[in-house]
Specification:
The strands form six sheets. Strands 1-2-5-6-7-8-11-12 form an eight-stranded parallel sheet, covered by helices on one side. The longest helix has 21 residues. The protein is an alpha/beta fold. It folds into two domains: 333 residues, Glycosidases (TIM Barrel); 146 residues, Glycosyl hydrolase domain, family 39 (Immunoglobulin-like), CATH 2.60.40. It is globular.
């Protein structure tokens, strides 16, 4: 079981080293048995380092009065130090364009707020450089500085990626200009560190014509195009990245998710990569893999995003990641990571409905799914069930029948004599429904007795949002209320550890699992 879930990302890099940002990063590092990879936008954007929604800056590159480059790594170091101190790994995004290098710099900054037109964010940071050699030297200096600061072995473990969604308004140039930027950037990375891992292009959903066309053009360039720097054929490529998003809607007063849309993006991307023999076994990183596309669009301005605070987000996440594994199996590709583009928003209203893992330092139910994943080790185990939707059926039609998707993901780790089974009760429609009776049989256990611990996310467990609502939704909770919310945000046990007899290699466990609930059974022997 490749820990594809241990990848996270966000738009606002300066949140990294703020109070709640550091707290959440510590929690992510603690819950994972492997180093967590972190991807952030705007690492080369010009500015004073003050965060804002959909904005961040490091001021890494400016020029003096004579046009001579001035490098300042202070803020980037502060960001990456925060990761490295927690044994996390940067997925180092090369972007966006510094003001002094942008071919169309003005206007440069923005003050976008939820509910405003989204195109307000697309300012001078998105354009190609006016001088590719200066740009390449910036990248060379950045990577060289990183090697000096963190060591060659550490930086070899990072992924250096080129830009974000260049098939969208995030890139103000042409496809060929992106290829040129990629060639100059990756040549600079490799000059500084020949063993660095480089890749891209982080296109939007490949099921769409725009994303698919760009991804194919990029792979063709890397395979057989003329390199803009060397003049030779092809460009270095160590991993392939694309994005995948769902599409929730408000239907008859309730939220209806669309897991199928996200899975079609993933399936289409896998199919494209698999069609290139040269690249079919490269690691694939789904650089943003989420229920929809705008983390900073809260439910007040976007009511279809009201799924984010409660257990629907957690059940969707459980069901989605299991299907990512199965789609990778079906397409026979090397899925390395799936980035959840969800972090936290510093000093914002409580439970505003951002797509985040915590609010004001209090963990939301979705974070507890990742705590569950952190307890799943070893190899995946076959699962069958009479209420489980087939992965391809969800990909093609989502979860729209009357019955929910009651299914599981299971692992066994022979090294530590443990097994784990995650079960979810998911449906696209977030409407009240009876709990589903689950009868779980775990076979092939090589012992006479196991200790079983049952963890649960539902309305009454691992759910800070439900507790906050019962408090009266305070926007200025007292210290005592905050302590209560923090406790409610942790992963809760439904049943304490208890011995269970194994009969003929089999354990039978029963529970009633509420709609949009998630259970994890951990077995040790």
């Amino acid at each position: 079981m490749e820990p594809i879930w241990a990848w996270f990302g966000y738009d606002e890099p300066n949140y990294t080293y703020m109070k709640d940002g550091k707290k959440l990063l510590s929690e992510l590092a603690e819950l994972s048995p492997v180093p967590v990879y972190v991807r952030a936008h705007s690492l080369l954007v010009t500015g004073d380092g003050k965060p804002a929604l959909k904005w961040g800056s490091t001021n890494a590159y400016t020029e003096d009065a004579k046009g001579k480059p001035v490098y300042d790594w202070t803020i980037i170091d502060r960001i990456f130090d925060t990761y490295i101190e927690r044994k996390m790994k940067p997925m180092a995004q090369i972007g966006f364009m510094p003001e002094a290098l942008s071919s169309k710099p003005q206007p440069y900054g923005h003050d976008w707020q939820p509910g405003q037109p989204y195109d307000k964010i697309y300012t001078g940071w998105r354009y190609p450089p006016k001088d590719y050699r200066k740009w390449a030297e910036l990248i060379y200096q950045w990577v060289s500085h990183s090697v000096k600061r963190y060591g060659k072995k550490e930086v070899e473990s990072w992924y250096w990626e080129m830009w974000n969604e260049p098939d969208s308004p995030y890139w103000g140039g042409t496809t060929e200009e992106y290829h040129k930027l990629y060639d100059y950037s990756m040549d600079a990375v490799r000059r500084a560190l020949p063993t660095a891992k480089v890749g891209g292009p982080h296109v939007t959903g490949p099921q769409g014509k725009r994303g698919a066309t760009f991804l194919k053009a990029f792979l063709e360039h890397c395979r057989s195009g003329k390199n803009y720097v060397t003049g030779k054929t092809g460009s270095p490529l160590d991993f392939v990245a694309f994005h995948a998003k769902g599409a929730p809607r408000l239907v008859d007063g309730h939220v209806r998710m669309n897991l199928g849309t996200q899975l079609r993006d993933i399936s289409s991307g896998f199919q494209i990569v698999a069609s290139y023999p040269e690249f079919s076994k490269l690691p694939i990183i789904i650089g943003e893999s989420d229920p929809e596309g705008c983390a900073a669009c809260g439910m007040q301005t976007n009511p279809e995003n009201a799924y984010r605070n409660g257990t629907m987000y957690s059940s969707y996440t459980a069901a989605a990641f299991a299907r990512k594994y199965e789609l990778a199996d079906a397409h026979q590709v090397n899925l390395k990571g799936a980035v959840s583009w969800s972090f936290e928003f510093e000093d914002q209203p409580w439970f505003y409905g951002f797509r985040d893992l915590a609010t004001n330092g209090v963990d939301k139910p979705v974070l507890n799914v990742f705590r569950m994943y952190g307890m799943m080790r070893g190899n995946r185990v076959d699962v069958t069930g009479n209420l489980a939707y087939h992965t391809m059926a969800i990909r093609d039609s989502s979860v729209r029948r009357a019955e929910p998707d009651v299914n599981a993901l299971a692992t066994r780790d022979t090294a530590s004599n443990t097994a784990a089974v995650m079960i979810w009760n998911y449906h696209d429609d977030n409407i009240p429904a009876p709990a589903s009776a689950v009868d779980l049989a775990i076979r092939g256990l090589p012992t006479k007795q196991v200790t079983v611990t049952h963890y649960r996310i539902d309305e009454d467990h691992s759910n800070s949002y439900a507790v906050w609502l019962k408090m009266g939704s305070p926007q200025k909770p007292t210290p005592e209320q905050v302590a209560t919310l923090e406790k409610a945000g942790k992963l809760a046990q439904l049943d304490a550890p208890a011995p269970v007899a194994v009969t003929n290699g089999t354990v039978r466990l029963k529970t009633d699992l509420p709609r949009q609930g998630v259970s994890l059974y951990k077995l040790t022997w």
